[in-house]
Prior knowledge:
Layout: H1 2-13, H2 27-51, E1 69-71, H3 82-97, H4 102-112, H5 117-129, H6 133-146, H7 151-163, H8 170-173, H9 179-182, E2 188-190, H10 191-207, H11 211-223, H12 228-257
Parallel strand pairs: 1-2
Amino acid sequence: SYTDSYGNVLESNLEGHNAYFEDNEDEEEEDDFEDDEEDLLDKYIEMYEEMVGELPDTETDGFVPQILKVSFDAMNINGLNEAQLKLHQELLKASVKNEPGLETRLRNAITQHPDVPVFYNLLAGFLYNQKREPEALALSEENIFRFPQYTMGKIQLAQIAAFRNEYEKIPELLSNFNFDLLFEGRDTVHASEVLALSRVGLSYFLWAEDIPQAWRCFDALYEYGATDETIKSAELEFMLKMNEYLSRRLKVTEEGRG
């Protein structure tokens, strides 16, 4: 999926950071590697809370406002009719498997259903995964221009901005992460929307050095069922940024003492 591809790119950029971030093909050693990751993450959190302050209790102060319901059941969040919903499900499965002829099928879906934003979103994701970035960006921007209330389209633009290190653009794209504005008129959101928003939010808030809010996003990935691949890429990114952040804090503290 587009979100997982985005995670893969982040993961590849972290290769070689240190021994904890190396892939290991041995299954038993892979378990040890994941245990080491968890231990290292715990150490970073402990260091942060000792140097800066406690991170938020996400059970009562999480990323998603408690007033919103999060559904894990199938939801027709795009307002599709029965035929469109069936086509969307077929194309979504084909996208995950990257089946031959996918681009033609996606373009045909757009031609047949020009007023359905989710098909544009799937095609943009396909183009981006094919490293056709200018086409993907142009299509994503067209999608938002045509369908300004389409939340997943906004998130996709934010993901592209994060990949291009244009983090300063993300708050405007995502209504400053204001759920009332992003999901205007809705009291229920789907877990897939929360996961996509949490993943790009993690990258943004780490860049902005808002560690408490990044922690909320990170916890939401666990709570709402992100894939193992997405969790791993998020852990690696979180640890790398925490390493950089805490190193700078420690240096400033030591210089102050000197």
